[in-house]
């Protein structure tokens, strides 16, 4: 049976490809970190600096974007009012229609990327300390306001409450949400701590060029793959 972490990472990747989810979302990753892909989940092994491999300069994107999707989840925004509407606040109620449904909302997203991925790729292609099945973090998405939930069972619910406002705009990076209650939710995260829950990965791949066809293999060098009358070409690309 698949774990919540694998289900979450697979669903995020299927919706936002080629962007990958970080697990757990509060994990701190940096450009130039390397590791393996286990299914759709990234498993960090270290930093390229540990291998004496230089990381090219980085580019930062100061723009604020909104990334959101839901799969099998319904969202209702309302108002939790006390007597005479004193202290009324906005509420967010998420209902999940099946096992492993997901609600994902990231507001105030900005991206930091390695400026020259080609330069990095050329360096890695000639460095035998970097294994062919490893991948590198080449893009990081920082999020000002992050809410995610994955249901454990059909009929799961999650209730959140706004911070002193009667209107709730999920695209607003300044909106503050607080946990109220949940039922049958396998995993949830509500954070305003500028997490980096999304990353872009690049890796070395093998392309076989034959007389009649071109085949791409999803992972790196494999000595057992040697089609007749073909040439192997290694290249660095987004995965």
Helices and strands, in order, run as HEEEEEEEEHEEEEEEE
What is the percentage of strand-forming residues? Answer: over 45%
* Estimated radius of gyration: 21 Å
Distance between the termini: 25 Å
- In total, how many domains does the architecture comprise? 1
Low-confidence stretches: 211-231
Apparent shape: elongated
Helix content: under 10%
SS elements, strand count: 15
Task: Please explain how this structure is put together.
The protein has one domain (4-238). The protein is built from 2 helices and 15 strands. It has helices at residues 4-16, 117-125, and strands at residues 20-21, 33-38, 41-47, 58-60, 65-71, 73-80, 89-96, 102-114, 135-151, 157-162, 177-183, 185-191, 195-210, 214-217, 230-238. Strands 1, 2, 3, 4, 5, 8, 9, 12, 13, 14 and 15 form an 11-stranded antiparallel sheet that branches. Strand 2 (33-38) and strand 3 (41-47) form a beta hairpin. The chain is elongated and about 60 Å long.
């Amino acid at each position: 049976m698949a774990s919540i972490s694998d289900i979450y990472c697979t669903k995020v990747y299927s919706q936002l490809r080629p962007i990958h989810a970080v697990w757990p979302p509060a994990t701190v990753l940096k450009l130039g970190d390397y590791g393996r892909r286990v299914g759709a989940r990234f498993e960090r092994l270290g930093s390229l600096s540990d291998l004496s491999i230089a990381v090219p300069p980085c580019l930062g994107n100061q723009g604020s974007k909104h990334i959101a999707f839901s799969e099998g989840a319904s969202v209702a925004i309302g108002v939790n009012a006390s007597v005479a509407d004193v202290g009324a606040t906005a509420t967010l109620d998420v209902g999940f229609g099946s096992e492993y449904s997901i609600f994902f909302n990231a507001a105030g997203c900005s991206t930091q990327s390695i400026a020259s991925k080609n330069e990095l790729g050329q360096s890695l292609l000639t460095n035998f300390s970097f294994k062919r099945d490893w991948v590198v973090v080449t893009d990081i998405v920082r999020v000002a306001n992050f809410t995610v939930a994955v249901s454990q069972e059909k009929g799961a619910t999650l209730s959140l409450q706004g911070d002193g406002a009667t209107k709730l705009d999920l695209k607003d990076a300044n909106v503050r949400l607080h946990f109220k209650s949940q039922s049958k939710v396998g995993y949830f995260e509500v954070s305003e701590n500028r997490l980096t829950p999304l990353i872009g990965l690049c890796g070395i791949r093998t392309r076989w060029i034959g007389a009649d066809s071109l085949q791409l293999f999803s992972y790196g060098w494999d000595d057992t793959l040697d089609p007749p009358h073909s040439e192997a070409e290694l290249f660095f690309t987004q995965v």
